[in-house]
What we know:
single chain, 761 residues, globular
Amino acid sequence: MGEFMNKLFNVFSITTLIIVIGFSSYDLKAQDASKSSALVEEVITTARKKEENQQVVPISISTVSSEQIEVLKIRDLTEITSIPNVSLDEVGTANHIPNFQIRGLGHNSSIASIESPVAMITDGIYIGNGRVSDSFDIESIQVLRGPQGTVMGKNSIGGAVLVNSKNPGDEWESKLRLAYDGFGAPGGMSSYVQYASGGPISDTLKVRGVVHFNDNDGWHKNMFNDENHGAIKSTMFRGTLVYDPSETLNVNLKYTSSETDGDGPSAQCFQLFEGGPSCLGMDRDRESFDLSIDEEGYLDDKAESLVLKVEKDVEFGDGLITYLYGDNSYEGDSIGDIDGTMAFIFHAPNRSEESSSSHELRYNGSFENFDLLIGYMSHERDLTFHEMRILPSTLGGSEWNGGGDLNHETTAFFATVEIPLSDQLTMDIGVRSTDEDKTVSIASLSAGVGNLATGGPSNIYFIGTRNPRLIQSPDQASCKIFSGGCIRDFIDNKSWSSTSPRIGFTYIDEDNTTYYAYRAIGYRSGGYNMRNTAILALTPQKGPGPYDQEEVTTTEFGMKKSFEKGRVNLAYFSSDLADMQRTLNEAGPAGPVQYIKNTGDASMSGLELDLVYMLMDDLVLNFNLGTLSAKYDDVTYDITGDGVINYKEYDLALPRAADLTYSVGLSKDFTFGSWSANGRISYSFRDEVAYDDANLGIIGEQRILDMGVDFYSPSENMSWGIYGKNMNDAVNHGNISPVSWGSFAPVMIGKVVGVEMVYNF
């Protein structure tokens, strides 16, 4: 069976290459609508909280429209690989937490209280460390590079990712997608059922409903029991209601509910280097997808969101008043095999509950001598978190508990003004003033009930219903965060204020080429580490915090050129980072001790090139390139942990800052009789990067080959497709610091081949 599948993959790869590249000489019939041409069409962005052509917005931005999502077959955010200096993976994060890295700024921790430097904004609502979502029925995905604090708000020093779902149209339409993939993966298969339908039900009322269902058997094979691992079932429902009682008033209400149930997060154990520590005698190569664990664990997530948007046209300044309200809630419960071995060494249950609400009121207007945006926003977030670490009797038989509560309140005022200095030159000035307040109540993991630090009793591990080795969940722990049974040994409150200014100039010449330059300052929130693994009595400096805000100052120059057959965008940026927030790790009695420190200052600079060009009427080239140079300018904390600050700190590479990223892709249209088709192939590369601040691990070079072909019926209401992800079966994971039994890293996914059918009613 394995030999047959390998032959199938080879045939598929060769066939797709021929389809995409070789059909340039084929006598093609003219198509009513070219699929590839959608890649060069005008794209609209809301980067400045108004709809504009991406090519006139004076920032480095990449936008993928719904039509382009369909052509490129982007199924979730993890498949966005064609953007310079941008990467997304789940390395070092909890399942479904998007770990965007933009211009070397990202997030490599699953600690829920730590803010990401890349803002996730869904349908206009800031969701912070949001979940990775499927891209089905999405209107656009916009990736804004560089600090966006003036307009988008806090925690966007690296950039912002805007995901906007579709609204119902003026005509009733329905769409069904069925997909089945996993061919080639060592584990099982994954099936998808997705349906969207909507349109007008009266002159003033429109509705749209979306259903998503995914049943994944687990793409990995657990060699411990020869069963599939990573099984997961996810469901999502989104309903949208649009009410237009008049030409000047629009009300948009969206409700989304999602649920995920499956195996728990787990790790892969491998050798850090040839000849290095083995994994309990198993000398595994880091280039393999081998997995052998004794506990499959479980993951149960539930999330809900409500978004209300009210827009009112006003005569004053031919303006628009917008009110935006968002309410989000999340519950998660999981148990994971963290040690990545078939021995019971280190298992970690955790539970979290989170809710947030936000209000934004803004005005956009256009006057004779200037355009104005002014607004107010407030955001409140409540988080309760309980984490356990279970060690077997051979290692002391201890139960470690910790967690606590966080309340986070934010208010902000913002304004931007665009002033024409001539027919071609415009100046924009903006500022945002933000006030934040955080209150925490923490039970330290090293000071909870029933652990080695206090000499408390160990609990007896019971036989679970899912696995005979299953350990206790937070609900059975001796220390209960959610019911108030844990001693809170750290209680604190702190407030921060910040001002995020921006000044820029835009020049559009007679050929509609845009030249721009700007300077902006942004901030990443200060805060607390709710995973406190330090013993406060012994090492208070490694406790929960607080740590200060991180500041970035960026200067950027860019050019954007549109022409008949495509567009090319070029940008150069230089950023100075002050009071960098870094996650540091060191060994402890219950696993790694993690703490957050402001470790110093750094500088980054780079180039970004984004090109889309129609080589032929039915053949489109995508190419992008990003370069990045990053270094420490001043180090104020002992990052290496050797007791001194010296050249070793300054020689460290900044984590997740890839020197080079690029991708190249082709999209080709062709016909077979009355049927049309589209083939595509893309190759993306990301340089090797350091995994963590102390450079104890690496994320190897990423080389990803994707391809696919879709066939469309004469009426184009139905399509059939075959697609392949990571066809070169590349391993792109990184490792956490080595431990006594080896090194461990999150399990990554290899080659996947699938088929799909789409029907438009």
